[in-house]
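Example record used in the benchmark description.
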Amino acid sequence: MEKKVSKLPEGLIPNGTIILGYVGSHSHGTYIAPTDPDAIDDIDMMGVCVLPDEQYHGLCRNPVLRDKRGRMNNEQQEVQEGQWDIVVYEVRKYFNLLLKQNPNVLGLLWLEENLYVKMTSAGRLIVENRDIFTSKEAFHSFAGYANEQLHKMTHMAFKGYMGDKRKRLVERFGFDCKNAAHLIRLLRMCTEYLTDGKLRVMRPDARAIMGIKNGEWSLDRVKEESERLFTLAREAYVRSSLPAEPNYEKAEELLLRVTEMAYRSHTEG
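Model output (structure tokens):
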């Protein structure tokens, strides 16, 4: 599956971006194309950028990134335009999320190679050192996100983030199948990660996850499987040989190396 950043509308990706890749359903192998009458998937992308040197060391502190509401900031840029849903994190913000074992941002470092559409030498340095951020604290982050999906699945059916098509699917099946698919996927990924420290973003169980998203599972089956998976995740946490916490010292060193490499590349370029 070849991806080209040139297909993106102009102006969506900030200058200084060092990693950019397809995340969400594309990265999990569970994307449902818009030709399907029940398709509700966006094209999700995530990136990391290094701001201009003066934002860190000079007098200039003017915000240069813009969120999806148009508000300026220096932490992340969010864009929702048509089918695109894109977030690019400033590198320090990104590292802080990695250290908290945020499952969404961790996934960017474990993509299939063909899903990266931009990878500079500074970005590659982060990917090559991704184990710095690995720790068994991932259990709390993954389980927290999974619990959020469990709640949304039945209690937030008609919140504003939903389009009309997704609301109709909720009405048809009696619960939000997309949240159910996220729930099962997150718990399976959590147990795998705690067991061997590898985050399997491209899912070997993609067909089953797509089946959940398409309404092939009943609500009772989803709840029963999630209870089983929460138990397995807790057991994996107790047995896990992963570090108790990420390596903060090495993360700090890596951040300095990444920003220096990004500046040097920009200057030499």
